[in-house]
Task: inverse folding
């Protein structure tokens, strides 16, 4: 099953002489994401980008200290959710000596805090914030670096402590242009859209009004606005997670799963998740965070217009990080008509993800001519739904249908 796509086949042949040594590390990080994008400098060191982190494990700390020598060129936080931010909070708390050159983190309320006029918190509001914190899951700081509970919980507070200059709070994510990463190549944001950002912004403002019984002061901003935004987002996501965990993993056949209609993730924080293309030389990586198909399709169309690429072309990526741990509502057949790769990376897990429906959507899409076979890369040795082992069993059955895939439990790809 193949898709003829002469545009990308010829381009891939033409670009072979512009190789860069790149590696992707995606170590196990609790239930969530943690990805390192590395580019070899040629002197034993590398340019680096770290994207998200749920649990700051000893293995991840060793990558930061031994491989990166306590220097991260770009730290990207795709969105505010426990399984993407907790490990980053822990890392920043444990390693105040860490050098970070640039931080990309889209906190929608942070700009209000930078204004000349900021409304102070009332005693009632301070008390409400304390109560909110008791409902949000907390990571535990290490014994040698204890901090106050409110600082341990809030990423923006930790960033401001030692890395305020690295955080570009006025970075425009929605402009259809490339962001230069210097020696690390270029980034093109494909999610969120302005509509998704506006939806999340309105929701958080409504949540503020509900919990604090009055309207958020839009024009002059609010003291600790970034902290409020994070707390309200985390509480919202906690409710989403409880709903998600009630869904059991499908046990039907692959073909039956593929034929089921796709559903769309309605989480406002996921719809506002950062997703982007990382380009370096002839290599292209698509990192989808927890973004939704509907939003990413709009971003991919903008990416095609920028390059330019025919609107009906399927883009070849050297690797794709599957959105939202392989949830059944974040990778639709419609989106897969625009993207393909020999390497599909699944990071993290929930009680129902990676989901068989998402795997079927990937497997049954016709292959690009430039791809011999797809490899499904699972970064965890354990899944509640045992999906990795189930897929290994299905490999010979799929081969009888004329579909060849590889299934691997790995944590690193060299490109």
Result:
């Amino acid at each position: 099953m193949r898709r003829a796509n002469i545009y990308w086949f010829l381009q891939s042949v033409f670009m072979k002489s512009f190789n860069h040594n790149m590696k992707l590390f995606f170590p196990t990080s609790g239930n969530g994401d943690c990805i390192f994008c590395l580019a070899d400098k040629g002197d034993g060191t590398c340019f680096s980008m770290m994207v998200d982190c749920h649990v700051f494990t000893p293995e991840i700390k060793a990558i930061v200290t031994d491989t990166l020598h306590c220097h991260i060129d770009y730290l990207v936080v795709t969105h505010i959710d426990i399984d993407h931010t907790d490990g980053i909070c822990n890392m920043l708390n444990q390693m105040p000596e860490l050098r970070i050159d640039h931080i990309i983190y889209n906190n929608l309320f942070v700009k209000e805090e930078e204004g000349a006029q900021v409304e102070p918190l009332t005693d009632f509001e301070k008390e409400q914030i304390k109560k909110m914190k008791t409902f949000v899951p907390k990571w535990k700081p290490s014994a040698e670096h204890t901090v106050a509970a409110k600082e341990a919980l809030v990423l923006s507070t930790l960033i401001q402590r030692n890395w305020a200059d690295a955080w570009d709070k006025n970075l425009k994510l929605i402009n259809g242009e490339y962001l230069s990463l210097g020696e690390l190549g270029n980034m093109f944001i494909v999610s969120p859209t302005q509509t998704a950002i506006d939806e999340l912004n309105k929701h958080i403002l409504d949540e503020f009004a509900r919990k604090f019984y009055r309207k958020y002061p839009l024009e002059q901003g609010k003291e600790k606005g970034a902290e409020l935004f994070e707390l309200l987002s985390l509480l919202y996501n906690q409710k989403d997670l409880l709903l998600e965990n009630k869904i059991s993993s499908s046990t039907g056949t692959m073909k039956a799963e593929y034929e089921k209609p796709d559903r769309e993730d309605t989480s406002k924080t996921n719809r506002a998740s950062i997703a982007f293309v990382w380009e370096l030389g002839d290599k292209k990586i698509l990192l989808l965070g927890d973004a939704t198909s509907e939003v990413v399709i709009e971003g991919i169309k903008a990416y095609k217009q920028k390059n330019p690429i025919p609107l009906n072309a399927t883009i070849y990526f050297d690797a794709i990080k599957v959105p939202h741990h392989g949830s059944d509502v974040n990778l639709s057949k419609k989106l897969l008509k625009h993207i393909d790769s020999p390497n599909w990376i699944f990071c993290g897990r929930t009680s129902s993800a990676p989901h068989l429906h998402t795997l079927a959507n990937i497997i049954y899409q016709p292959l690009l001519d430039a791809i011999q076979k797809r490899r499904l890369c699972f970064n965890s040795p354990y899944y509640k739904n045992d999906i990795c082992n189930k897929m290994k069993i299905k490999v010979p059955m799929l081969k009888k249908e004329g579909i060849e895939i590889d299934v691997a439990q790995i944590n690193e790809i060299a490109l």
Observations:
- The longest strand covers residues 71-77.
- Residues 6-18, 139-152, 241-251 have pLDDT under 50 and may be disordered.
- Residues 225-244 form the longest helix (20 residues).
